[in-house]
Task: structure prediction
Amino acid sequence: MKSPKNSVLKRTNIFTKYFLVFALIFVVAFIALGTALMVLVNSYEINEKTNLLKENATALSENISEMLIVNDMNSSYSPDKALICDSLRTVSNCIDADVFVCDVGGNVIICKEQTGIGAYATESMVCDEHAYFKMDDTVIQSVYEDSISVSRSVINGKNSYVVGVAIVAPQYSQGNAYEKGDIIGSVFAVVEVGATSLVSSVTKAFLVIAVVVLLLAFAMIWLTTRKMVTPLQQMSQAAKRFAVGDFSYRVEIDSNDELSDLGIAFNDMADALDKLESSRRSFVANVSHELKTPMTSISGFIDGILDGTIPKEKETYYLKIVSDEIKRLSRLVVAMLNMSKMESGDFEMKPKNYNISDQIIHILLTFEQNIEKKNIEIRGLEDMPPHRVHADPDMIYQVIYNIFDNAVKFTNTDGYIDIKVKEKSDIVEISVKNSGEGIKPDELTRVFERFYKVDKSRSLDAKGAGLGLYIVKMMVEMHGGKIFARSDSENEAEFVFTLPKGK
Result:
């Protein structure tokens, strides 16, 4: 037996499938509607026809009972019967039915065909065709029991609707076998079963309208299905491009529905992938550079010491440079490892209550040399009261260190760094503002992205790989806080973050 895994499913076009499904629904609906309409129209037409037959047959029955004497209910010619025959012919033509008179046994004794000289010549009121008619006993019995009968029966080999009305003896005559009120015969009106003129007209009109409506419906279904499927086809094409690294393709959106929401989400995903790919390439380039430069320096200095190119008295100086470069590599590796742990949820937090004001002052002291070198004014420390937070001290140390590192790095000579700590309900807000070149508006929302580094003019002195602020953001958010950057002017930049208030 062939394994299901090895079986090849026949590919189906979603446009064709949807179009055929909707088209089939419309066709079935129209067939059902047309059938119901035909049944209703046919039923209405039959009721109207049988009612008309009953009215005329009843009128003929009353007329015949007055004109014929009881003993004259036979097929022999008489002037009175000739008049009745003329009446039958007139009524038959008006109601489009075969009307004739039968005796009590169901034999035809007067028909509409025997008019004029032909009846007189043959001395019979029954034509050759009607002479062989014989009404069914059940129909005759129904007429006798109810005086009037509406039924469906086979007449002369044809399936027909039959209306029969009893002819009642009008009066009692001496020597007659019947008394007043006795049934002496019956009038029958017969219509062949089949599509009536009204049903035929309605059917033709419905078919014409149905064809027009279905053509319009098919056109609308085609357009609607095409509109539904086009975004999906575009997404399929985009996904194929994404697979080979091309994230430039976007889905065209020209509606406001669920498909447009899907298209917007797809384009947002494409934007995110494009940014991620750009960041990845930048990260690879930056990391490669950051790794290559110190490794080249380390290799060169060590080779110089080993081959004697560097004199003995300079070995300590160059070994210190090698040590600094190794520490720089270590910091880069640690940053990447921390980022990986935080993204995977393996980074363990150890929060506790402590005074963040002391931590800020302590971290600033580590930048004392660079601060004095650039003659930077530190504001906000002179009146900073203690503020307690509930956080992991080591993680927040790295957060504050990275923010101060950026502030000191980008503050202009003779500039300032303004530090503010505020308590708001259940949070503590820390703000670090520095003078110097600000951050462009289009970069404010991206400075915390992974691998992202600000524009070249602001990053000339930067030696990181674009991970510092991304890790800072992750650490702050792991504490339930928020962090953002703002630059109200071209000469200022500010970083603000919040932490839970401690006890």
